């Protein structure tokens, strides 16, 4: 699905690189955790994988095609769905409206289908009353569920999440991770999650650790 070829990144000088010559492969139908100490470059890596920034060296390919050839705007609109710690929902809209907007922007095949959006929110545990409310009136766990539902109604084959459980308690964390597993195993998407939490990493099919400027596989999907 997605692979990096000799990927490298640095912010100021090349000699202060965060990582270099990184070759990683991410497959459809699996979830992956990216772990490593604070400041090691995890967020930077997923920003590149999500097409939010360009590599300084090497390249990233989706199904064998360089992201630069696809075009980062097209890639972000059609191929990747992003979940942030801070939810990044449209705060002046309801949960249903957030999903409807995402489907419209990404040209999802379910564009305009309100029942589909509501069914997805229901599946993720939101009540009819909650999905009509302005999202700011929902709890953190409920807002993160809306953000995840948003990735599920879009057709993007790739889901990238940066600390998606950072603001959640243990129960909500477990539920959110179970949802990511469903997205990978039942919808056949490729899910990549940056996390500080060992319990979250443990539940993913693959674990990649960034240390000493190198990414290494701690666990590879079966
Ligand atoms: N825009 C920027 N300009 C310069 N340096 C930056 C910028 N963004 C991040 N950095 C530096 O790059 C390094 C890697 O940052 P990054 O956020 O990718 O790490 P991380 O592993 O995700 O950290 P954390 O676990 O704390 O979120 C850090 O030392 C950070 O200070």
UniProtKB/TrEMBL annotation:
<dbReference type="InterPro" id="IPR027417">
    <property type="entry name" value="P-loop_NTPase"/>
</dbReference>
<dbReference type="InterPro" id="IPR015854">
    <property type="entry name" value="ABC_transpr_LolD-like"/>
</dbReference>
<dbReference type="GO" id="GO:0005524">
    <property type="term" value="F:ATP binding"/>
</dbReference>
<dbReference type="InterPro" id="IPR017871">
    <property type="entry name" value="ABC_transporter-like_CS"/>
</dbReference>
<keyword id="KW-0067">ATP-binding</keyword>
<protein>
    <submittedName>
        <fullName>Abc transporter, atp-binding protein</fullName>
    </submittedName>
</protein>
<comment type="similarity">
    <text>Belongs to the ABC transporter superfamily.</text>
</comment>
<keyword id="KW-0547">Nucleotide-binding</keyword>
<dbReference type="GO" id="GO:0005886">
    <property type="term" value="C:plasma membrane"/>
</dbReference>
<dbReference type="GO" id="GO:0022857">
    <property type="term" value="F:transmembrane transporter activity"/>
</dbReference>
<dbReference type="InterPro" id="IPR003593">
    <property type="entry name" value="AAA+_ATPase"/>
</dbReference>
<dbReference type="InterPro" id="IPR017911">
    <property type="entry name" value="MacB-like_ATP-bd"/>
</dbReference>
<dbReference type="Pfam" id="PF00005">
    <property type="entry name" value="ABC_tran"/>
</dbReference>
<feature type="domain" description="ABC transporter">
    <location>
        <begin position="2"/>
        <end position="222"/>
    </location>
</feature>
<dbReference type="InterPro" id="IPR003439">
    <property type="entry name" value="ABC_transporter-like_ATP-bd"/>
</dbReference>
<keyword id="KW-0813">Transport</keyword>
<dbReference type="GO" id="GO:0016887">
    <property type="term" value="F:ATP hydrolysis activity"/>
</dbReference>
